[in-house]
Amino acid sequence: PVFSGTVNWDGPLRIKATTTGPSSTIAKIIRMVVEDAQAHEAPVQRLADAIAGPFVYTVMTLSAATFSFWYLLGTHLFPEVLLNDISGPDGDSLLLSLKLAVDVLVVSCPCALGLATPTAILIGTSMGAKRGLLIRGGDVLERLAGIDAIVLDKTGTLTKGKPVVTSIASLAYDGMEILRLAAAVEKTALHPIANAITKEAELCKLDIPTTSGQLTQPGFGCLAEVDGRLVAVGNLDWVHNRFETKASPTELSDLGKRLEFVPSSEASSSNQSKSIAYIGREGEGIIGAIAISDVLRDDAKSTVDRLKQEGIATYILSGDRKEAVEGIGETVGIRSENRRSSLTPQEKAGIISTLQGEGHRVAMVGDGINDAPSLAAADVGIAMRTHSKENAASDAASVVLLGNRLSQVVDALSLSKATMAKVHQNLAWAVAYNIVAIPIAAGALLPQFDFAMTPSLSGGLMALSSIFVVSNSLLLQLHGSFQKAEKTRTG
After folding, report:
1. Is 153 assigned a catalytic role?
2. Which candidate in 10, 153, 294, 379 is catalytic?
3. Assuming Cys at both sites, which of 113, 149, 228, 338 could form a disulfide with 313, CB separation 3.0 to 4.6 Å?
4. What is the SS3 string spanning 56-105?
5. Do 48 and 117 contact (CB within 8 A), yes or no?
6. 370 contact partners, CB below 8 Å, separation of at least 6
7. Handedness of CA 389, 390, 392, 398 (dihedral sign)
């Protein structure tokens, strides 16, 4: 059986549906995910809840202590307090004690503590959604605010993810034959490089043969049977090791040299981001190669610069060739020791785990199935929405950039920090209010300043405390960077 909810990202799959509609497993999973996301509390919220619970019993105890003190002892120590209006026209100590005890109960505001976090989180996630940031829970915002290292994928993240074929080289065949075989193998894949190969074949109006036995190994390449023989398309080592017959080092070197002569002007402008897909066939080994160049995103360098200004270390981890990764890394300004190439998805996740072991709080930004393990391993996974539909990357990520702009990474970080700042402001207000208001309500100023709250004044202050917390959270909508971004889009 193929379980409902399985993501078939690469290769064709023929299945028979046995259940449909709301009774299907995937529908149940979606309901569970939505409910789970709504229930995700930030750790600071759990702290506030832990305080708010005992706080209620503490206030009740303080109220009883206030009554006991003023009724049994206070009015004898400070008899002048009975002249205050709160004790009534007859200076009744019982009435004064009752009113002060009620003041303590009414003025205390555990609801301000309870509202401090969820109101700010609600405004923050709503603002993110309006601006193309899908943030899955308050806990994600809190983790995102503490990020000090960001790992970036190359293809589709730092680059536009829309590469084009720039040259084709072959050892013994016509270039169109190499393109035809590669397109046949890659036509069911959704990686940007596969899309570039199939698109080029369509532009050349090639007759793409049918295939069978497709096999995809994320991060390495694809394999399929074409015209009765196995054909592999992928990186050099993977394709080279697929077949018993192997091309000689001299032939491989000659193949690489032929790819250097690129007639396309578009390719030369993005030469630093060139990737090479090698094509091998059963009984022959590697028979050709296709160079694919991708264009750097317009906001890639500015985004890396802004991250540096925020004191966040940036890394580039890619499965692509060293030359392509080094070129892109140098262009956007990522330090040479933070560039890693020719990595498998598992190796990417391992490097992220190593960074975490060194004490870094790591966010990973990626766009495809190759990045899913890394997105899941990072403290916060951020997925670029390069396709109109969900993919393995967005499934594994905590934040999805629906606008498909790399600059949204900085927006998400800025929003998370602003949101957590509001949370801390709200909590500080709630604690400070109760620390100041409860002693005054208990009559601390009554002997010296002849001032005491009435229950009605206490109720008004309690309501204002909650209103302040909500209003302060609403001020998050005036967050500077988002106002500028909104004006830029409107203009």
Report:
1. yes
2. 153
3. 149
4. HHHHHHHHHHHHHHHHHHHHHHCHHHHHCHHHCCCCCHHHHHHHHHHHHH
5. yes
6. 153, 191, 218, 219, 319, 345, 348
7. positive
